[in-house]
Amino acid sequence: MIPFFKTLEKQYGIKSFYKDDWLERYTVNTSCKETPLIKVLNGIFTDHELNYEFFQDYALIIFPRSADTRIKPEGTEQILIIGDPINAGRYKTGTISGKILDGKTGDPLPGAVVYNTKLAKGATSDKEGNFQLEMPTGDHQLKISFMGFQENNCKVKLIESGAAEFELFEETHNLGEVTIVGEESNSSRTQMSMVQMNSKVIKNLPLLMGERDVIKSIAMMPGIQVVGELASGFNVRGGNSDQNLILLSGTPVFNTSHLFGFLSMINPDVVDNLRVYKGGLPARFGERVSSIMEIDMKEGNDKTVKAYGGLGIINSRLTLDGPLTKNKKLRFLAAGRMSYTDWVLKKVPDPDVSSSVTNFYDFCGKLSYRFNRNNWMNAMGYTSHDEFSTSSQSVNNYGNDLFNLETHNKYGENLSGELNLSYSKYKFRLTDYADGKDYEAYYLDDQIQYNSLKYDLFWQPHPLHSVHTGINAIYYLNDPGKISPYADTTVIVNEKLDREKAIEGACYLSDEFDVIPGLTVNLGLRYSRFALLGPETVLLYDPDQTKSSESVVDSLVYGKGDIVKSYGGIEPRFSLNYETTNGYSLKMSYQRTRQYINQISNTAVISPAEIWKTCDYHLKPLINDQIAIGASNSKLVKGCNLSAELYYKNLQNLIEYKNGAQIIMNKHLETDLVPSHGYSYGIELSLNKSQGRLTGWLNYVYSRTMRKTNGDFDDEMINKGKYYPSIYDKPHDLSVVATYNISRRWRVAGNFVFVSGRPVTLPELTYQYGGETLVYYSDRNKYRMPPYNRLDLSITFDENLRKKRMWKGSWTLSVYNLYGRKNPYSVYYRKTAGEAATDYRTYSLFSLSVIGIPVPSLTYNFSF
Question: E strand or H helix at 21, and its extent?
Fold first, then answer.
């Protein structure tokens, strides 16, 4: 070890003070080329009986830990030197290009904040955990923070521009700083209406059957709801679930559920982090009008091959990751899940569910190659399959196939670009056995395929000025329905709806800059264009009659490749952020978005059988204009962040359905659709506590979602043309999530939700006509189901914290629906015998609860 410190003095002028007999029996074998001194020293002295300290910046004192009897104040850190000490005084300013990592796993932390307390300026890390911060040279104090992690206060001596890595930990650990080259931050300082969670935060939530769920966790955040117990998808600010674009590593997912919606299709072990944009969409996003969810998959670690997974009562999962080459430039991640749920479903009180059969599997993988510190490439693949039956009469099969190729290139100090190639295919099949009559049995198939190319260019001429531009091209192939016979001898006739071929393109430009100190503005402009391609035959209807087979007056025939109909327009984006000196952040945003593809369903709960439909000659694109204002403060209550947002949405060309609409295998769907428009508004209040042993958040939302039809004829006027509540209109939404860390390994977590009941349409009376009993239904969504509320609780014994322990495991005992609330999944009328309990009525109203009892579970998670 002595030659090492003599080299430091000879080549770098850093003197070291020590006794020779302290160092003689130790050697240094670490390669130190182009490595900051702080990283080298931390690597040498971590868990060592010797320790070090800097003295007067350019000197080192080496001493035995046992000889240090000083009382060290809490929060004492080493000084991180960025730059070559030889260049001290040569530069007036320098830029830190850094990266923020989870100190436990090495995963990047996007959205972490780096703040210079002396200059009152900071930066936010991008999706790779990278940031850039320009400062005067000299001594600085940096505060690095991220929700759910311990804050890191780091002393920095900036000599010249350089790079640094910072690690954050969930609990108190010895913090070390190492250095690699960072990339620019493309996170907007004006961004609002965004929810961000990482896998560490999600892990603490007590969820169904002990299984972590990255998508259902989002429903605990303000402005995001699910329709009902175990419903697939989610609703953002009153929008339909198909109005959310879910991107897995940049590739769209058209169905996100497993097991009727019990679980989401994303393996929680491969999720690095996720972001949901409820409003204030950056110009680079489009395709949907309610929200964008980005789910980033982890990259394989660059140290050694690791395995981790879990054993639960629903499914088991296993993940492998690590380097594939000696130089560790090529890394991999591979993961799989498989279910064994039939015995669980038999415990559900609904007889249809308890007699059903279901199973699923999913596999995903990612390859990452780092050409150098400025250029890299990722390839991702995913496949899943679900099979379920609610009776012996039919079986449903569906699945997703995804592929993504992403490259990142840095062209200069402030210019970089990303290329994204995506492929997504969703397929569904219903097999109807027709009571064992093979000659009447049939298959019903539908599928949609998505192919896209996207290129983003990011330019940051100044830390307080950034420009983002790019293009996106999409090609759709949609098969909305096909019926084919199950057996060779059959009475079923082959029938297939015409395939829909369409293209969608977009280009965008956004510019973010500081107007005055504290006021940041982001101006964005996006232009999108959609075209439906032939061959296609379009029916024309008498404008003085409602659309039906009887009102057809003509038809238009388009050949292969002809443009049947095109739509498009400008989508402006605007957002600003004003930060005051007393800790307030005031934000405002406006956006216009267009959506050219819709999921067709006339029920509140989306099922895998619902079909997708592109815009066509009659069906116009959905247009949303949204404005939002918000305020937040992180200093008003110590350790807490308070925020409030107001929003208003105006939606054009919404899809509504005539009473008795036929969706499946409808060759002319426009005859059952009703043009409509609507609006949504609400206020979202949130309190978040991310420091201390007790962490969590409290959210309350009041919102309304209303619709009105635009039809000219009686069968196109729902509720006589008056505004009525959408099926997603649930005014009150309260959620509380809390985690208490008893010790480093024991923690207790719980969550409580209360949501207004959703609107329903119910029969009001029966009458006799022509010898038959007919039912008269209420106005659309006139009634409401009872409110939904639930309490979950879990306790976790976490893994051993010793780094050298090869096998690590954790146990989680959780109870879903702790007090056994029978939340109604649906309500219905049923004929009963007249008795006092039903007021001697022959038809009574009943509710179905899918999970009406406490559901305990025990899960074991492991890694090695």
Answer: helix 20-23
